[in-house]
Amino acid sequence: MKLVAVSDTHGDHQILETILTQQPDADAYFYAGDSEFAADDPIFDHYVAVRGNMDFDSAFPLTVSQTVAGVPVFMTHGHRFGVNFSLNQLLDAAAKAKARIVIFGHTHQLGVEQHDGMVVLNPGSISQPRGQFARMGGTYAVIEATDETITVTYYLRSGQPAPDLKRRFALK
Fold this sequence. Notes:
By secondary structure, the chain is mostly beta strands. The chain has helices at residues 13-22, 88-96; strands at residues 2-6, 28-31, 47-49, 63-68, 71-76, 101-103, 111-115, 118-122, 139-145, 149-156, 161-170. It has a six-stranded mixed sheet with strand order 3-2-1-9-10-11, with no helix packed on it. A five-stranded mixed sheet has the order 4-5-6-8-7, covered by helices on one side. The radius of gyration is 14 Å and the shape is globular. The chain starts with a strand and ends with a strand.
């Protein structure tokens, strides 16, 4: 199973279209908020999307729980879960949703870790990155799951894998 996770484009429509061509074989595409587009924008025919703090269309849901190829995924933007300070609220909500993969945005900083059998990741901002990896010019994540592992690989806007930004987690 292969998922693509993107967040925080802040008006950069073209990159969402480009990612679809860079990763044409994904089973699902997840968008973790702050597009600044309307919820009925045709790009969301391809992406499962949530509402970010800069999305003013209330038709976007605040969270999404969806199972893809037998793997439960929970996604939110993160601003309503205090992700700038702690992942605790996010982890609680994801555990209630029985998620194996948890996707969030908001901080514009990529990161991935495992908590209680859940792989929790922020794809970073594809258009306005911050933090340690900002110099890379934006990232998105590709998540591949098997019965034994979940692998997260970060990709650059160019579609190339980001150097040394790949993590594999054994499922418990």
